Amino acid sequence: DRLGLGRAALPEEIAAWDGDVRPDGTGLPVGSGDAIIGEEIFATQCAACHGDFAEGIDNWPKLAGGIDTLYHDDPLKTVGSYWPYLSTAFDYIKRSMPYGNAGTLSDDETYALLAYILYSNDLIDDDFVLSNETFFDVEMPNADGFIIDDRAETEYAQWRGEPCMENCKPEPVSVTMRAMVLDVTPQEEAEAPAEGTIVAESAAQAEPEVVAALFDADLAEEGEKVFRKCKSCHQVGEDAKNRVGPILNGIVGKPAGAVEGFRYSKPMAAAGEEGLVWSEAELIAFLANPKDYMRGTKMAFAGLRKEDDLVAVVEYLKSFGD
Amino acid sequence: TPDPLITEVQEWAQGFGDGVDETPYGLPIAHERDVIRRNVEWLTADTVSSINFTPIHALDGTITPQGCAFERHHSGAIDLKKEDYRLMINGLVDTPLVFTYGDLERFPRENHVYFCECAANTGMEWAGAQLNGAQFTHGMIHNMEYTGVPLRMLLEEAGLDTAGDLKDKWVFVEGADASSNGRSIPMEKALDDCLIAFKANGEALRKEHGYPVRLVVPGWEGNMWVKWIRRIEVMDGPVESREETSKYTDTLADGISRKWTWAMDAKSVVTSPSPQSPITHGKGPLVISGLAWSGNGAITRVDVSKDGGMSWQTARLAKPGEKMALTRFYLDTEWDGSEMLLQSRAMDDTGYVQPTKAQLREVRGLNSIYHNNCIQTWLVRANGETENVEVS
């Protein structure tokens, strides 16, 4: 029996949230794009993690290659080699990509990106226009590579019944492999500061006098929270490394495009050569809307909307010298 | 010699401890600060799309405190207020509906204890012993008491007459975070025991577990337990989303992959002694303790071997096993100080016996990643130190 709770969902609301695309094409929007357009979008929005050729950087997913590797040791599973349905890729890209800026791609951009990924997998030619109409012309190599869970027949039937209790295997039992050999277990950080005590104290007591004049510790603390949005790509501090984005130690006051060992986009490198320096004001302008501030930047981040967040995060960055 | 801890008046026996306003929401005492979730950095590219592990080696009983319960996010743990929370039910329903958080609290609710295990738990051990610690080999699991509304009740509120024959129908569930983590669930399961949960262990869900509302899918892989659940669509087929095709599918040796492997099969592990919880007291009385669970029913029996699977003794269950919940087992024994190869083997009420690594590999090969429920071996050395090994 119904309780009469909740209210009717409006058509606009359903349209806003119901975006799933299914293998038979249900939900696929009208639109189109090709690999050439897709490559441009990919370079700015995706390549920082997935590599210029969809080959994947570090531990980020590889999107291309691996066909005929599924029966090898360590198979390479990509959109080309593993994904059974093209609809899955459209559904996922449109909904959840680019990473950190999800749901911002138009339908045409999504078709174009998908075309570029298919092209990178040698599954279409560069003049193939992917659209809701040509969608099913693409053959996914691993479309027949799946079976429905068969554990009931292949496993449960065998692994049942009264188990052995005595003399269950040939003597002597010997050790055949040890985790020590690989030694990939994270080390205990026994000397880490007591969480929440020492750290909090030093922040609360803030650096006195000289630094206080130049640097607002409370604001920096606010900025540290804002910086969580940046952390997936940028590192700061003593052991910082270039990752998807460059190290940000000493970034305030540093020329643009000047962090050693980081591969900048062409526009960013050029701006630095032309004398752009990351003053507080320039950084704030950049972070408010990276794509508008610098067309062609690799930074996929959408920007910070709140003025307070911008000021705070720059203050936080100021606390890290070179 | 007399113990000065007894013969001399101690500071804590003389003065005061903390007042009641010291930590209005309690924290674990500082001496237990090593009992925390841990991440394995090399596993993933980024902590925002990653997993950490429950310190099962240091816990006892069966309930996992929320602060110790492993986290797995695909786009980070989001901050979603109750006031901003909306749950939509659409698709093949009589009336598509939107619920607020407050609406959910007006449905009759239930309490159930269930384990939530990531399908990838023990996944790093397919090719061989890799990680030295029960926390890392088996810590993608937690067990909490959930309070929530049966999913069936919400579906019936929207009305299922439009859906017709429910036998071949599905629900697609997605979260409010950027990953959305969409999954398709057969209607039979959706109507059976799934819960729309908003409390765990008596208090609000933690942010990292989907505050304010998550889906609970008893016995089935953790990825389906969609956090920050915002939409449920009734469908006539599965979406075949990224999380149920490219991930959470199990590749066999011949390159063919199993899909829709939802249930977590019976499994157990000795949590102590284990690499992070060695024997420090020398020979004599020893409690061997561990956890067992099955996504197909209740644990009925756990056997423990000290000699690498040659011979077995049946352990004591702390309480009779409950369906799709952790069961604690103990073997109260005497240690003679010699080397042990410790194993545990769980059985559930379907008669299933937890398999060895060799049995699993024979059927599945080495590339399955998910659903590794093999018997684990710990080598306990004469000095009490313990390591993760494989045996003949």
Would you spell out the secondary-structure blueprint of this structure?
The complex is a heterodimer of chains A (322) and B (392).
Chain A: E1 7-8, H1 11-17, E2 32-34, H2 35-45, H3 47-50, H4 86-96, H5 107-120, E3 129-131, E4 146-148, H6 151-156, E5 175-178, H7 179-182, H8 198-205, H9 209-214, H10 217-226, H11 266-273, H12 280-288, H13 290-293, H14 307-318
Antiparallel strand pairs in A: 2-3
Helix pairs in contact in A: 2-5, 4-5, 10-14, 12-14
Chain B: H1 4-7, H2 11-14, E1 38-39, E2 50-53, E3 72-73, E4 86-91, E5 97-100, H3 101-104, E6 110-117, H4 134-138, E7 141-150, H5 151-158, E8 170-175, E9 183-186, H6 187-192, E10 195-200, E11 203-204, E12 214-216, E13 229-235, H7 242-245, E14 250-251, E15 257-259, E16 267-272, E17 284-293, E18 299-305, E19 313-314, E20 316-317, E21 327-335, E22 340-348, H8 357-364, E23 377-380, E24 386-391
